[in-house]
Amino acid sequence: MADLCAVVGVGQTKHAACRADVSIAGLVREAVDRALTDANITIADVDAIVIGKAPDSLEGVAMPELWLADALAAHGKPVFRVHTAGSVGGSTAIVAAQHVMAGIHGTVLTIGFEKQSDGNAMWALSVPIPFGMPVHAGAGGYFSPIVRGYIGRSGAPKHIGAMVAVKDRTNACKNPYAHLHEPDWTLEKALETPMLWDPIRFIETCPSSDGAMALVLMSEERADKHAGPKAWVHATSMRSEPTAFAGREQVSPVAGEMCAADLWRKAGIKNPAEEIDVVEMYVPFAWFEPMWLENLGFAPRNEGWRWVEDGVTEMGGSLPVNPSGGVLSSNPIGASGMLRFGEAAMQVMGKAGEHQIDGAKKAVGHAYGGGSQFFAMWLVSSTKP
Amino acid sequence: MSEADGLVRLRQPIGVTYNWSAGPNATSHLAGLMNGQFVGKRCPSCALVYFPPRNGVCPKCAKILAGDVEVGPKGTITTFCIVNVPFLGQKIKLPYVAAQILLDGADISMQHLIQECEAEDVRIGMRVEPVWKDKSEWGATLENVQHFRPTGEPDRVMGAESGAS
After folding, report:
1. Is residue B11 part of a domain?
2. Which residue from A175, A374, B6, B9 could staple onto A84, CB 3.0 to 4.6 Å apart?
3. Residue A255: closest CA among A103, A144, A371, A119
4. Is B4 within the bounds of a domain?
């Protein structure tokens, strides 16, 4: 039987298109220092460090975990690096939690980061595949045909993506760390933005950001003696599947459904939409909000878009999704999953400030990566399981 | 080199040249392309045909793919993207249609370019055929096909899961 694990500290950077004021090491350290301060501990109290980021090609720094060891004050401590593409921030937090739950380490620091302005992610994600046809145009080019498939099968009206985008950009104005603070969007203006990867509009795409997120995790024994709010990890789950296989369900990947079902089972959740107070969901392209509502078992198949239209996922709705502004408002790729996990923790710790959902007791953090092939989720609560 | 708040940023391009070992299972596929043929492989367990055979392994059954199967040359568009975004290294005039094409006889779609029709006329279920480059330009690559174009045949009715591969 696994030990319990709690988040006791959360720290993130101010996310921006270009944090030219810091190096990668400085960016990471900013989040780490804030997490340690939030947990009211020092690096000397940390037993192990787990770091994650998206592909090294994004900044052109190979094996940054080695290079960053000094900035992380990792001298004499174990350092582990995790990689699962865009879901890496989530899976990194899970690996860190597993070190605690396995009883190996009492206090673990975990970090996700990306400094997109140091490289060119669009290029790094469009490298020609040997012997293939180079018509692929970045992540948007990959996901757009899948969004077209969802619109076709669900009969969703064309404005749903823009509605999600306006909601997330509006929420982000309540989050001082968010990259985009754009309070003036209306649905009408959003629908006038150009189609980049038809059917995906400009407003419906995430920005390119520099940023980092760090969490401090503790075992039950240590957390019980620790003053301050905690987010208890009730369950974690990860699932993966190949990018391409015959008959693959691209709109609602089986691995995503399995990941969510496993999470609900482990946490004893019978009706996710009723029992979960707030979700931080990985939505880099707006249409993925209704798609994941269905994939994760919140909404019935082909009904997710109706929930968006009815305002269910707004901050005042019955299932708020991404009160932080989400990936659509800040996307430091390697940190984005951990931002979802950390923001979920902040909600149940009562630390979300202006974007706090009142009385949130159970929150879910969700991340996906690659060609919708890596899934990571956790469920955190203000009380022990 | 640029400066922000007195801090220096250096611009440092990186270039890498790799070799790619095709292995025996992808070799017949590549040899096929050099002969103007689409050669896929069949999974000995589930019998589905993979084109291209990627790593020579069935992603679902984890079995080594076995017999060669010629597929196409015609195919059907299963879904597509109209690309309006300029990016580094791009060679094709915008806007262009990058479509998932299910070649006849194959069980998984592959991505290629659609030309010789307006982007707005492209649709799921549309029948297409390859337009090959001049033989003198052929190599072991799908780029031997300049693009796919509509055949004018009636559309093929795709399942409700048209977003699936």
Report:
1. no
2. A374
3. A371
4. no
* Cis bond before residue B52 (omega within 30° of 0): yes
The number of folded domains in chain B is 1
CA atoms within 13 A on the CB side of A170: 16
Query: What is the domain range of residue B56?
Result: 21-150
Name which of A20, A60, A194 is nearest B84 (Cβ-Cβ). A194
ipTM exceeding 0.90, yes/no = no
State whether B81 and A153 contact (CB < 8 Å): no
* pTM listed for this prediction: 0.91
pLDDT digits (tens, 9 = 90+) for A323-374: 999 999 999 999 999 999 999 999 999 999 999 999 999 999 999 998 889 9
Q: How far apart are CA B23 and CA A155, in angstroms?
A: 44
d(CA A320, nearest CA chain B) in Å: 27
B80 to chain A, closest Cα gap in Å: 5
Per the DSSP assignment, residues forming a β-bridge with A285 are: A205
- Report the chain A residue with the minimal C-alpha distance to residue B82: A198
Select from 3.40.50.2000, 1.10.287.3510, 3.40.50.720, 3.40.47.10 the CATH code of A5-121+208-225.
Answer: 3.40.47.10
Q: Read off the pLDDT of residues B99-144 as tens digits, 9 standing for 90 and up.
A: 999 999 999 999 999 999 999 999 999 999 999 999 999 998 899 9
Task: Please write the tens of the pLDDT for every residue from A120-141.
Answer: 777 777 666 666 777 766 778 8
Q: Which helix (H) or strand (E) holds A95?
A: helix A88-101
Instruction: Write out residues 140-159 of B within 8 Å (CB-CB) of A.
Output: 140-143, 145
Select the residue of B50, B82, B140 nearest A246 (Cβ to Cβ).
Answer: B50
Q: Tokens 């609900």 correspond to what residue?
A: A264
